Amino acid sequence: MRTPLIAGNWKMNGSVERIRAFGDAFAGDCLPAALDVAVIPPFPYLQAAQQSFDGTPLKLGAQTLNPEPAGAHTGEVNAAMLAEFGVTCVLVGHSERRQHYGETDADVSRRAEAALAGGLTPVLCVGETLAQREAGATRDVVLGQVAAVMEPLGASLARHLVIAYEPVWAIGTGLTATPEEAQATMGDIRAWLAGRDAELAQSLRLLYGGSMKADNAAALLAQPDIDGGLVGGASLQIDEFYAICQSA
Ligand code: PEP
């Protein structure tokens, strides 16, 4: 019913050579048909990726966007620019953007709206810090981040989103939420969506992110409300990423 999605966030890593190696490795029908796979490299590699991924099942994503249509925003790129290079999805609200670049829920909401207006799928990243988890605030924090973006959207736009639950304490740390911990929060997200729109809750894809690897992916992806993964470090290695895709 929901096509699984595995998305590899390369963060500030990679090279043209690695892009080409992924294009070669994923050429042909090497992945399950009912699976979406996206690679999300840094901006400078989008053009090489557009060329190298042509004829492969790999879709192309971007790590952020600026919500403004054009103008004096040095260093930024907008949705139309990303679309010109074949980008189909874009991360919004990744915890590293929230933590290190001061993105607020309001900023994330504007980015999601700009992505949708530009025909891109926003992958809305939400998740609690360790302190918030230990304070028992996980549900409130995560649902607050979801609501900030989803509430202003009408149902027809909201159904184009993907939500990635990424506990901040699990990102890049080697600590993974147990399948049960991930399912508990992602079940809360699905229930919140159902409270707004039952059809939306059934169709919207929820990804887990946070030290997903080949050896823990299958157990996470077996949970009823986990429809895929947002993979950081493990998405840089072809064999590891390929194995995660095969688990979906
Ligand atoms: C991420 O950057 O979204 C992520 C989940 O990273 P990692 O898999 O390395 O924890």
TrEMBL record:
Substrate binds at residues 9-11, 172, 211, 232-233. InterPro entries: Aldolase_TIM, TIM_sf, TrioseP_Isoase_bac/euk, Triosephosphate_isomerase, Triosephosphate_isomerase_AS. NCBIfam families: tim. The gene is tpiA. Belongs to the triosephosphate isomerase family. The keyword Isomerase applies. It catalyses: D-glyceraldehyde 3-phosphate = dihydroxyacetone phosphate. Involved in the gluconeogenesis. Catalyzes stereospecifically the conversion of dihydroxyacetone phosphate (DHAP) to D-glyceraldehyde-3-phosphate (G3P). CDD domains: TIM. Keywords: Cytoplasm, Gluconeogenesis, Glycolysis, Isomerase. The lineage of its organism: Bacteria, Pseudomonadati, Pseudomonadota, Gammaproteobacteria, Oceanospirillales. The keyword Transport does not apply. It is found in: Cytoplasm. Homodimer. The active site is at 94 (electrophile), 166 (proton acceptor). SUPFAM superfamilies: Triosephosphate isomerase (TIM). This is Triosephosphate isomerase. Pathway: Carbohydrate biosynthesis; gluconeogenesis; Carbohydrate metabolism; erythritol degradation; Carbohydrate degradation; glycolysis; D-glyceraldehyde 3-phosphate from glycerone phosphate: step 1/1. Its main location: cytoplasm. Its EC number is 5.3.1.1.
